[in-house]
Amino acid sequence: MMKRLYRVLAYLIAAGVVLQAAAIAYAVFGMFEWVAGGGTIDKALIESNNPQIGGIIGFDLHQRVGVTILPLLALLFLISSFFARVPGGIRWGLIVFAATLAQSLLGIYAHHSSAVGWLHGAMALILFTCAVVSGTRVNRALANRALASTQLESASAPQPAQPQGA
Fold first, then answer.
1. Helical segments of 82-158, H only
2. CA neighbor of 24 nearest in space, from 87, 72, 66
3. What is the domain partition of the chain in residue ranges?
4. How many Å apart are CA 142 and CA 113, to the nearest integer?
5. Residue 147: is its pLDDT beyond 70?
6. For position 138, what pLDDT does the model report?
7. Residue among 103, 20, 28 nearest 63 (CA)
8. N or C: at which end does the chain have fewer Cβ atoms within 10 angstroms?
9. For residues 139 and 7, which has the higher predicted lDDT (pLDDT)?
10. Region 15-32: what's the mean pLDDT?
11. pLDDT at 6
């Protein structure tokens, strides 16, 4: 049960990173479309959440997922890692949690320095990779357990008697 929760949370975190990438792409391309149609963008327009700007919902979705949902999932993932009994699971739980916090903080600080945006984008790829690796480690652990169980059953099964003198 806990292994399944651990795996589901790992894949939800990876899916959250994909959702964030899609949301910000939607927002930026909607903004480009707005400008290409003659619209102008300034701070007041962005803060007004004007629905006339194509893709404005993408900015909100990107922020909400990155600042609230992913950190909450990462915290639940870390907690589940203590009970899942996945080999190396606690270490990977800590890695994913730290990567999520770093990703969120980089996103917040990128508003003050656009150069931090480079790190924010790179950290998204790192977080995605760590989450997927964590999820696949559960699959490997379950496969190894099934293999060991099969080998144990075959070793404890009675062996056919060898004919004497053969």
1. 89-109, 116-156
2. 66
3. 2-27+56-138
4. 45
5. no
6. 85
7. 20
8. C
9. 7
10. 93
11. 94
Element (H, E) at 39: none
CB 13 within 8 A of CB 73: yes
Q: Which residues contact 49 (CB under 8 A, 6 or more apart)?
A: 56, 60
Could you tell me which of 65, 61, 89 has the C-alpha nearest to residue 77? Answer: 89
SS3 9: helix
Rounded alpha-carbon distances, angstroms, from residue 161 to 11, 19, 158, 164, 166: 50, 61, 9, 9, 12
User: How many CA atoms are closer than 13 Å to the CA of 100, on its beta-carbon side?
Assistant: 29
Contact of 55 with 39, CB cutoff 8 Å: no
- pLDDT per position as a tens digit, 113-127: 988 999 999 999 999
Identify residue 39 by its one-letter amino acid code.
Answer: G
Q: Average pLDDT, whole number, for the chain?
A: 86
Residues 132 and 11 sit within 8 Å (Cβ to Cβ): yes
Q: What is the pLDDT of residues 78-101, one digit of tens each?
A: 999 999 988 899 999 999 999 999
Least trusted range by pLDDT, from 101-105, 119-123, 154-158: 154-158
What's the token pair of residue 24?
């910000």
Distance CA 154, CA 106 (A): 53
